[in-house]
Structure formats: structure tokens, C-alpha cells
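ok trying again, last paste got cut off:
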Amino acid sequence: MILAEKIIDERKKNGWSQEDLADKLGVSRQSVSKWEGAQSVPDLQRILEMSELFGVSTDYLLKDEETNRTDDIEDSGTTSRKLSMEEANEFLDHNKVFAKKIAVGSMICTLCPVPLMILMAFQNAGKIGLTEDQTGAIGIAVLLAIVALALVFIIPAAMNASKWEWLENEVFDPEYGVEGMVRSRSDKYGKSFVNSITFGTVSILLGVIALITGAAIDEKNEPLLMGLTGVMLVFIAVGVLLIVNAGIIKDGFSKLLQEESYSRTEKTNKALKTVAPVFWMIVTAGYLLWSFLTNDWHITWIVWPVAGVIYGAISVILRNTHKDS
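nice, full thing came through this time. structure:
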């Protein structure tokens, strides 16, 4: 191994991120990234400091041939899966397409109640010659058709993504240069990510403001409120498109770098893995049941932000419990 590979190897053995190592050495994270990408070489003082931090000899760090660490332990015979440069690039390309399909599918799902809202608004205003039940039946039929359209995007994308599930569940070792490449692409995407999250959030807020403004003007005007609910959902759908797309792309970098929710520690947290799918299945079933029974689609969407907050709290508890065990 060369120096760059040894720095990566020793850092990961200690469970440190590049930021953690940079803080301990008093350098920038970019400097550590360049060392690990073999784009630059640390000075002698940093070599000595890393020798002490890692508990290895300077000879081990500086010599390209494989030399023994000062604290070598017998090999347990277990090996981690390797991630090649080709696999990393293939995954990033796949994840970009996957993000777009899931984001479009999510946007369409968010829009599905809009035709129902518009039909009910026209029916209440006496603009169409249908009873309330007839209007509701047509609206529900259109809603289900739109959901089916969304599934055309979501289901194939999810099935194709199954090839990469091991990145979420298995601890792996990237081959030389992979981490530096992924980190570089992640840094370049940073600005786009911030812009997408910002504009997505603003779009959602504009939708809510439109509904609140309409209610303030005339809260008893049912057709107006239904129409504005449809407008709100359109703004929310645009926000969902931007946020989901950006989030999945950012998530892909975290998977390859084994950071945040995909760190080595998180991957071994079996409790969180078990709870997550069960929790979201219950939330989805509850949302659909409440929505279809009450037909209050303009209200039931509140399930998702509330569920997100609750899941965040559950995640924190399970992570802390896992660390203490």
C-alpha cells in the first residue's frame, strides 16, 4: 500500500471521518481529501502526528511496501467487500437517474388530489351539473389513475435499485482513489443541493401562504378554499420534486462515503433497520385510510411532516441506545 491508502485504512479503523482526522491534525478537510486521493503529500510534522494518532510507526506510513504496524493484531480471517472505481461511478450515474424517477413519482403522488379539489370546487360553485357524490366518484377515479401513473415511475426505479442495496447494508472498503473521487463530486454538488433544498422549501411555503391568504379573505367561500388547496398542492409538488431529487443524490454520496445514516456504526444497528420499514408502512397505511375515509386530502398531508419528526426522535433514541450497548 502507498501512503494515501494507509491514511484511509487507519482513519477508518479508528472510525473517523475526514473531518474528524482534519480536526485532530489542525488542517482542513480538503487537505485530508487530497492526501487520500494521492493529490498531495502531508509534511513531516503531519506524518509524525498521524503516527501517534494511528499508533503506527512512521516507517509503516512512509514505505510503499507492506510493513507491519507497531500494534498489529492477528488477522481474524474476515474480509470486507471491496468497492471499485468502476462500481462507484456506475452507482453515481444510476443514482442520478433513480433520483429523478422517484422525485417525479413523488411529485405526481402529491398532485393526485388536485383534480378532485378542482372538481369539488366547481361543483360547489354550481359550475357543473353533477351531484356531490358523482363529483367525488369521478375525482377519486382520477386520483387513483394519477397514483397508478406515479407507480409507473416509482416501481421500476425501486426494482432496478435493488442491485445496490448492499451499499446500504454492508460494510465495505473502497479501492484506492474511490473516496477521493466521490468526495470531489460530492463537493461539486454541494451548491446545487443547497439551491434545490432552498427553492423547494420556498415553493412549499408559498403554497401554504396562498391557502392562508385565501382563508383570511373569505373563510366561508368553500369553492375558493378548495381551489386554493389545489394551488397549494401544486406548489408543494414542485417543492417535493426539488427536495426529493436533491436528497436522493446527496444520499448516494453518503452511501459511498459511509457517512451519516450509512456509517459503519449505523449499518450494524439492527434495531433501526427493523423499525424503519415497519414505521413507514404504518404511516403510509394510516395516511391512505384517513384520506379515503374522510376525503380530506387537503388536510391529511400533514401526516408526513409529523411522521418525519416522530421518526427523527425514534432514530436518535435507537442510535444512542446502540452506542451504549
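cool. The chain is about 75% helix and 0% strand. Strands lie at 81-83, 172-174.
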